[in-house]
Amino acid sequence: MTKEFGVPPVVFPSGGNPTVAVGGNTQQRRVPTAPFQPPRPSNSGIPFMSFEVGSAAATTSGPIGGGTGPIGGVANFDDEEPLLDELGIHPDQIWKKTKSILNPFRANPTFHKDSDLSGPIFLYLSFCLFQLLAGKIQFGVILGWIVVSSIFLYVVFNMLAGRHGNLDLHTCTSVIGYCLLPVVILSAISLFVPQNGALRSGIAGVFVIWATRACTNLMVAVADGGEEHRGLIAYACFLIYTLFSLLVVF
Predict the structure, then answer these.
(1) Which intervals hold domain Yip1 (predicted)?
(2) How far apart, in whole angstroms, are the C-alpha atoms of residue 219 and residue 206?
(3) Rounded (10°) CA dihedral 191, 192, 198, 202
(4) Is 182 exposed, middle or buried (0-12, 13-18, 19+ CB in 10 A)?
(5) 114, 115, 175, 245: which sits with the fewest CB atoms below 10 Å from its CB?
């Protein structure tokens, strides 16, 4: 036994959308439309927004937004300063200042009037390295003594010079750091000298006098008001470098 179902006829009007007649009423079915697409500009100033390979290749010949400079090509660094100069590190000046310390009788103060801390940091690291090779880890001790010595000599010099003293802490630290060169050389030599001997103490005394004389001459030359107090300034410098030499000897 079969059962018949009444299916209303489907009418296709001229518009294309099919309609279904239900109970004498014509109901129109909606056909889904394509999603909205924004209009594509004819000339896009940004190359990666263009979906055409040819237009993208044409627009990448210059910088974004127009111009004549290259983007993907090799930039011109001829007018750029060297990286060390931008960081304030001048190897030629460091070498000249270091070389002026090698002669304790003729220390040239001309180079030390333009103070810097690049050379003292290099000498500090060298001193710490030689001490490390000797089995002594003294990075913090040496750095702390440099800071305390700089403040000590700065206060002593300006108190002796009075109102005429114009020594600043940066210059004082720079001079003390560069005059640390004899102590660094002593630390390197001490690696090959027996410990706890008279020879080691004698060599240390020579290098302390060398550092003291160089530091005293530079302090008097780079700042005003220290010439008449040369002896007291030399005594303060002697205490400073004797303290550093004790790290090497013992």
Answers:
(1) 101-247
(2) 20
(3) -80
(4) buried
(5) 114
Partners of 25 in the β-ladder: 22
Q: Which position has the token pair 């800071």?
A: 147
Element (H, E) at 177: helix 169-178
Q: Per residue in 222-239, is it b (16+ CB within 10 Å) or e — as a string? A: bbebbeebeeebbebbbe
Query: What are the CA-CA distances from residue 36 to residues 33, 39, 41, 188 (Å)?
Result: 9, 9, 16, 79
* C-alpha distances in Å from residue 247, one per residue of 25, 44, 100, 143, 175: 109, 71, 25, 12, 20
Only one residue has tokens 């014509």, namely 26
Tens of pLDDT along 66-93? 444 445 555 566 667 777 767 777 788 8
**List of residues 6+ apart from 99 with CB closer than 8 A:** none
Give the pLDDT of residue 15.
53
How far apart, in whole angstroms, are the C-alpha atoms of residue 34 and residue 32? 7
* CA dihedral sign of residues 233, 234, 235, 236: positive
- Please list the helix, strand and coil fractions of the chain in percent, rounded to the nearest 5, in that order: 55, 5, 40
- Distance, in Å, from the CA atom of 157 to the CA atom of 217, rounded to the nearest integer, reads 13
Joined tokens for residue 173: 């630290």
Residue-wise DSSP of 185-225: HHHHHGGGS-SSSHHHHHHHHHHHHHHHHHHHHHHHHHSSS
Alpha-carbon dihedral sign for residues 201, 207, 211, 216: positive
Cβ(211)–Cβ(180) below 8 Å: yes
